[in-house]
Amino acid sequence: MSTAAPVSKPRRVALFIACFNDTLFPETGRAVVTVLERLGLEVDFPAEQTCCGQMHANSGYQLEAVPLVRRFVDVFADVEAIVTPSGSCAAMVHDQYRRLAELAGDPGLARAVDEVAPRVHEFSRFLVDVMETTDVGAYYPHRVAYHPTCHSLRLLRVGEAPLRLLRSVRGLELVELEAANECCGFGGTFAVKNADTSAAMLTDKLRRVLDSGAEAVTALDNSCLLHIGGGLARLQTGVRAVHLAEILASTEDEPAPAPAGEVSA
Amino acid sequence: MSFEPAPFPVAARRELADSQLRANLRRATTTIRAKRAAVVSELPDWEELREAGRRIKYDAIRHLDKHLERLEESVTAAGGKVHWARDGAEAIEIVARVAREHSTDEVIKVKSLATDEIDLNEGLAERGIHAIETDLAELIIQLAGDQSSHILVPAIHRNRAEIRELFRRELGIAELTDDPHELAEAARKYLRSKFLSVPVAVSGANFAVAETGAVGVVESEGNGRMCVTLPRALVSIVGIEKILPRFRDLEVMLQLLPRSATGERMNPYTSIWTGVTPGDGPQEFHLVLLDNGRTNVLADPIGRDALHCIRCSACLNVCPVYERTGGHAYRSIYPGPIGAILTPQLRGLEQAPTLPWASSLCGACYEVCPVKIDIPKLLVHLRGRVVREVEGKGRPDPEVVAMRAFARILVSPRRYRAAQRAGRIGQWPLARRGMIRKLPGPLAGWTAVRDMKPIPRQTFREWWEERR
Amino acid sequence: MSSARDDILARVRAALRDVPADEPADAEPPRDYETGSRLSGEELTTRFCERVADYRANVVRTEEAVIPVAIREALAAHGARRIAVPPDLPAEWLGEVPEAVADDPPLSPRDLDGLDGVLTGSALAIAETGTIVLDGGALQGRRALSLVPDLHVCVVRADRIVGSVPEAIEALSAGAREGRPLTFISGPSATSDIELRRVEGVHGPRRLEVIVAA
After folding, report:
1. How are strands ordered across the β-sheet holding B130-133?
2. Which of A34, B3, B185, C191 could form a disulfide with B331 if both were Cys (CB 3.0 to 4.6 A apart)?
3. Which CATH class, in words, describes the domain spanning C39-213?
4. Which of C184, C193, C194 minimises the CB distance to B269?
5. What is the span of the domain harbouring residue A160?
6. Cβ of A53 under 8 Å from any chain B Cβ?
């Protein structure tokens, strides 16, 4: 599987927000823009983007995902660097796009995928490996636990990048999760199709979050955080789930906004 | 071994509530994970071994016909007899014939997943032949009329008090505590006389070496050695995928298997024999090469990787789903991650259509598989096959219709934005006070245990457009 | 009417249609793993003794000339008197056995079961894994001999200890090609089938005494 190739520091980046974040977690997108601009980068948002296709590709609808692959490679064809705050979307591009192009029997698409994939960077990886930065001037005076999402842990192999970023956040106390590498039980449609098993896995993840004494749990994927955060809210734990980007965007002057659960119009 | 069919989510729900099972599984898998990690970390060349293991199986499977013919030659030249069984019935018939030829109505058995797969014991019983399980766990399962729940430790779902009761009742032992040593001693006494007298044994095999005809059984208790050494005749039922091309390949497998299976540097006993050795061991050796659906698996160029499996069970032991549901939820002698990709292919997708979804695709299994089977990739591949070959057929399945419609929405920026707006408006009755506590229809499973974050007032792209 | 063999092979070939005809069937895998061993000489013996002791076998180191003494002591420690021996056991060793029962003509399983123990040599041993390998060769006898009695006293020559599994497989392959049956023994028998508690001693010899002779 291809992973993002090391590039020299770009001056402009395009943001792939991910349909999920666009709709449910716009605050994560705003945070990413804040951090990238703080580092002096110019951020573009190609409006023609929609969805990376992972939901379809992973649920057995690979052929239906192919048009979404095409859209992605078209929208981001001429961009130097693409940054996404979704580990699972980045993993989708790196791990599955090639296979889908082959399934579609389209060598042109396969070439386009090979061309774009190395330029797609998961957000924490982008900061640490491309921008070579671990301190983005953040201030977040809370006790935080980090949950490694399965895609970022095992497919993207982000390794220490998120932890290094968190350790440089002023005021932040990082606490460890027991059995941190165990899946939270989201798994996309798994949470609905195998709701009971998903709930059992979630329970253990919640238990470990609570045992850690954290005020907030963070990760590279809002999909997992939606699931973990949903459980934390239902049980009235008072612990919140917040994407890494929002922690990094938080400063003394502009601290991170209120936790999830705002009422919409 | 037969299992009453049930969709995985339904079966899982029942198993999840079994607190004895949950406790046993948690303890067992946590212990084995730690042991495996410790012995694997001792080997600086573990990744190189895995890659060698992967390539050995990959090449063996891709040229299976040639290796099978070679194996047949080698075993025959060494005095063994090779049989081919298209399905379980043919294999059972061969065993029954050998038993009849030796005028016995009893055979002793070493644990073999292939024999469970074909319901050998039941088939022999129908022919008046009693197959005596000699593996402690298989004996427990047999006496209890139960079903295996794990590839390596089949009775893991039973605790010692249950086992004690079972032995007291079925083996007629009045005084018996639940101390595992005493329980093992009871089993030993019961089986000893059988080992010393029964003339026919049935085994499986972990490996069959095409180059030399060597067949191997990897075990712990010694019942394997008993069965492959003492009787007059031995019948080994071996899946065609168990082939290794060269004798040398054993140096890789004998490192990968014990460390991955029981977390040991080496298991207590490994027996490797070739055909018949005059004056040593059974003077009659029958090798039964079993298909029983393996050629179906072989026919799928992606799915056939499932045939690389060496049955170590490392994937079961790291799987967060298996740890909580146990093996019975998979309704197959092959449960867990490997079961989810092998069972539907062996039996036919329509027989086990829910298994490819019995996974959150976390990838922990792929990390530990000693022969690097990309289980998540195969799960996703099989999901696609089930949708196209099972659900996509006949009358339109509501999910298929919905997913295709959803794809059409996602591919068009205009339709996508309209859907965002529609969702935001449509959720209004549900999201009056912060989180959504109840979602309708098929999404109700989500809100059974989680709140749902409502769609915020402004999407990211609306915010972006506003600030420009 | 085609046979099961014909059917199965035909199905296999049909299933593998996508494999290019010119792809070699006997390609060697990449063997970038350790095929030798970093240990040598004395280290091999020490490592082997450590590892086999891990499995709860009794290990004694001695010198070649004094093997008979070690045998006598090992048997005495278990009060073992009637001992099965392979027909080619050396006289000096035999002298230490209170009552040696030679496996010639071959003893029946029941006869073997009635004995106190068995005494054999070995083909080689593997230091890394604490494994002893028997191949039916010199001083080992047939497989049933070292299987049935409850005590196995096994003499391992230090110069026949190899470091790794690959070295062992290499050393054993000539014999294996001749059809020799191999038994790999790593400790006394065990099971973990009851609540995953390792319980020693099920069907194989429950007691293993290893004499390592330099």
Report:
1. B81-85, B284-290, B233-239, B200-203, B106-109, B130-133
2. B3
3. alpha beta
4. C184
5. 143-249
6. yes
Task: Report ipTM (2 d.p.).
Answer: 0.96
- C134, burial (CB in 10 Å: exposed 0-12, middle 13-18, buried 19+): buried
Q: Both A151 and A124 in a single domain?
A: no
- As a whole number of angstroms, the distance between CA B20 and CA A91 comes to 38
Query: Which residue among A104, A130, A156 closes a domain?
Result: A130
CB contact under 8 A, C147 and B160: no
pLDDT at C198: 63
Is residue B419 within 8 A of residue A227, CB to CB? The reply is no
Chain B contact probe: residue of C151, C200, C203 with most B CBs at under 10 A? C203
Task: Tell me, yes or no, whether A83 and A156 share the same domain.
Answer: no
Token pair, residue A189, equals 């449609």
Q: Whose structure tokens read 């009849």?
A: B100
Q: What is the CA radius of gyration of chain C?
A: 21
Q: What is the DSSP string of B171-196?
A: S--SS--S-HHHHHHHHHHHHHHHHH
pTM of the predicted protein model: 0.95
A3 occurs within a structural domain: no
Quick one: which of B311, B71, B320 has its CA closest to B213? B71
How far apart are the C-alpha atoms of C128 and C35, rounded to whole Å?
12
Give the H or E element holding residue C70: helix C67-77
A43, A144, C126, C141, C170 from C162: Cα distances, Å = 62, 52, 5, 22, 10
What CA–CA distance (Å, rounded) separates B149 from B434? 44
Q: Cis ω on the peptide bond leading into residue B442 (within 30° of 0)?
A: no
Rounded average pLDDT over B178-200: 86
Instruction: Show me where the domains of chain C are located.
Output: 39-213
Query: Does residue B424 carry a pLDDT above 90?
Result: no
Contact A100, A73 (CB under 8 A): no
CA–CA distance, A203 with A195 (Å, rounded to integer) = 12
Interface size B-C, in CB pairs within 8 Å, comes to 260
Q: Is the Cβ pair B230, C109 closer than 8 Å?
A: yes
pLDDT at residue B394 is higher than 90: no
CB A190 within 8 A of CB B357: yes
- Model confidence at A5, in pLDDT bands (50, 70, 90)? low
Give the separation between CA A101 and CA C141, rounded to whole angstroms: 62
Task: Using the predicted structure, report yes or no on whether residue A2 has a pLDDT greater than 60.
Answer: no
Give the per-residue SS3 of B109-125: ECCCHHHHHCCHHHHHH
Backbone CA torsion sign across B164, B151, C125, C198: negative
Three-class secondary structure of residue B456 per DSSP: coil
The pLDDT score that the predictor gives to residue A260 is 46
What number of CA atoms fall less than 13 Å from residue B186's CA on the CB side? 24
Q: What is the mean pLDDT of chain B?
A: 92
If asked whether residues A102 and A22 sit together in one domain, one would say yes
Q: Which residues of B261-296 are buried (b: 16+ CB within 10 A; e: fewer)?
A: bbbbbbbbbbbbbbbbbeebbbebbbbbbbbbbbbb
Q: Which residue of A has its CA nearest to B425?
A: A265
Cα gap A166→A145, rounded to integer Å: 10
Q: What angle do CA B214, B109, C152 make, to 5 degrees?
A: 70
What are the start-end ranges of the H helices in chain A? 19-24, 26-38, 54-58, 62-75, 87-91, 97-103, 107-116, 123-125, 150, 161-167, 190-193, 195-211, 222-234, 244-249
CA atoms within 13 A on the CB side of B151: 23
Same domain as A199, residue A166: yes
Calculate how close chain B gets to A69, using CA atoms only, in Å: 9
Which tokens belong to B63? Answer: 């040229």
**Spatial CB neighbours of A261, under 8 Å, sequence gap ≥ 6:** A233, B434, B435, B451, B453, B454
pLDDT tens profile A20-67: 999 999 999 999 999 999 999 999 999 999 999 999 999 999 999 999
- Residue by residue, DSSP assigns A162-214 as HHHHHHTSBT-EEEPPTTTTS--S-TTTHHHHTHHHHHHHHHHHHHHHHHTT-
